[in-house]
Amino acid sequence: MPNQIMKNIDLATPLSLSALVSYQTGQIVSRTLVQNRAVSLTLFAFDTNEEISSHESKGDAMVQILDGKAKITIGDNVHFLSSGETVVMPAGVPHALEAVEPFKMLLTVVFPV
Known about the structure:
Elements: E1 28-35, E2 39-46, E3 51-55, E4 60-67, E5 69-74, E6 77-82, E7 86-89, E8 95-99, E9 103-110
Antiparallel strand pairs: 1-2, 2-9, 3-8, 4-7, 4-9, 5-6, 5-8
């Protein structure tokens, strides 16, 4: 196969993204699909009450909830997202994520190049 850009995922095969990461008690599990200077694609599975504390990104970060429910804070705004919902966390704005219940997400970060 020519230079494969995506990793840790089968190409040309229908897949369930949610099935590619598993919940682990008391942990956040991640699986990187793409990481380069322009874009990052990572799947995550958060156990209840696990969190990523407030931080900023140099790129716009889109969260797509695949399963469960998350509390996402962007600046001073708090959002509760469930399976099928999406939010964009703008570059340079502090944001945090917390598992209200176990949840899985696809995180896409697009960086300025």
